[in-house]
Amino acid sequence: MNPKLIKKQFEKSLDTYNKNAIVQKIMAEKLVSELCNIKAEYQNILELGSGAGLLTKEIAQKIKFRQYFANDIIEKSEQYIRKIIPTCHFYCGDARRIKPVQKMDLIISNAMFQWFDNLEKVSKTYSNMLNKDGILAFTSFSSENYKEIKELTGLSLNYKTIKETEQAFSKDFEILYKQEIMEKLEFSNSLELLAHMKNTGVNSLSSKHWTFKNVKDFCENYKDKYPECSLTYDGMLLICKKL
Question: What is the bridge-based pairing of β-strands 41-48 and 64-72?
């Protein structure tokens, strides 16, 4: 995980993220829907990786709360979140290092935990931030995510399987619900696919600057290898209760 690179690339895509993050929106909707089946009212909520407010909107519409805290590595995220929840408290910085002033009843995050390299440490960190019987609810991406990109370029995060993720959190949490979410997006051409990735911040996988030739070669190779021009999203959803 390179926080500086992630911040740089997501800053560029923040204004285009919600419009292009089709799968992430599906995941956010599923996350809040399943969470409401378990519990739909909390005192203190902390959202990690709030971004442009994709998940925040779902929470504001469907979950009751007294205080809302949000975190993102990008300062501009606060502007988006305050438009949805004007009274929110915003923590800017690395989600693993923030220090809320009080314990939370719900910590929630959408499509962010794949950036963490040590889930056992993350589990302990967020367990310590929660009140007794507090809930940790999140979506992340799994081992088959962007498999086409990995096969073609070798670029990939160190994605964990849902089983590995469940094991990492099982020492500190009881797993109340889990679900795999597989989606495949289709594009009219590989250049459109590249634009989709850029507009959702996924070019944070590499600091390499692509030349016109790099883009041309990628598009031609992608079309040859995947003529249907599709892109695989392999996601997961977990809702856990603090032990």
Answer: parallel
- The residue segments making up the domain with residue 73 are 3-146+157-184+234-242
Task: Calculate the alpha carbon distances from 38 to 19, 48, 51, 123 in Å.
Answer: 29, 20, 25, 20
| pLDDT tens per residue across span 161-206 | 999 999 999 999 999 999 999 999 999 999 999 999 889 876 545 5
How many structural domains are present in the chain? 1
Q: Give the C-alpha separation, 167 to 171, whole Å.
A: 8
Distance set, CA 126 to CA 4, 6, 123, 207 (Å): 22, 21, 5, 29
In order, the DSSP letters of 196-216 are HHHHTTGGGG--PPPPHHHHH
Kindly report the pTM of this predicted structure: 0.94
Q: Decide if 6 contacts 157 (C-beta within 8 A).
A: no
- Residue 69, in any domain of the structure: yes
In a domain, 195, yes or no: no
- 181: which 2 tokens? 């979410």
Q: How far apart are CA 59 and CA 48, in angstroms?
A: 13
